[in-house]
Amino acid sequence: MKVIKYILSALFMIAICGFMACGDDDSDGPTLSERQLEALQGEWSVSQDSDVMLNSDNAPGDWSNFNVTFMANGLVTVGGVPADVDIDIFELSSFEISGDQELAFDLIFNGLADETASVRITDNGNGMILSFSLSSNDDNLGTRTAAIQGGWEFLLTKS
């Protein structure tokens, strides 16, 4: 009788382990980091000059041609930075995504200056708010630091 109870107990434990191993692991779809990269990937540009703000005012310079392109391999290119705005921070080369939300996360840029920016994807994936803060203590700002310190916000549209 003890042998039968032992065998039934062992079969019961094996069955429970088998059911636990058959759980849904969501391996069919893309991971969170893949979804974040997909939302970010592509060329983003400003629609008008007033889409670039510094400390809640229009940023100095003509930003109407500003664009940034995020590539799947982690590289980034930036164009259209006004010639009269001396900001080494826009000499970017690569990025990393950090965060646990699909459409709101941080980007860690690498280049002449390491900078962290906040990203929020809007308008069904066609809009982005990119914001960061610059200070002369932490950032490689170039020569005209007083005019560019503070909170930057870019309202970008996916091209």
Layout: helices, strands, pairs:
Elements: H1 2-21, H2 32-40, E1 42-46, E2 52-54, E3 57-58, E4 67-70, E5 76-79, E6 92-98, E7 104-111, E8 115-122, E9 127-134, E10 150-158
Antiparallel strand pairs: 1-4, 1-10, 2-3, 2-10, 4-5, 6-7, 7-8, 8-9, 9-10
Summed up, what is this model?
With 159 residues, the chain is of the alpha+beta class. It is built from two helices and ten strands. Helices cover 18% and strands 36% of the residues.
- Measure the end-to-end span: 75 Å
Summarize the amount of helix as a percent range: 10-25%
* CA gyration radius, whole angstroms: 24 Å
The low-confidence parts are 139-145
Count of β-strands = 10
Principal-axis shape equals: elongated
Task: Please tell me about this protein's structure.
The chain is an alpha+beta fold and 159 residues long. 18% of the residues lie in helices and 36% in strands. Strands 1, 2, 3, 4, 5, 6, 7, 8, 9 and 10 form a 10-stranded antiparallel beta sheet that branches. Strand 6 (92-98) and strand 7 form a beta hairpin. The longest helix has 20 residues, at 2-21. The chain is elongated, with a radius of gyration of 24 Å. It starts with a helix and ends with a strand. 18% of the residues are buried. The model is unreliable at 139-145 (pLDDT under 50).
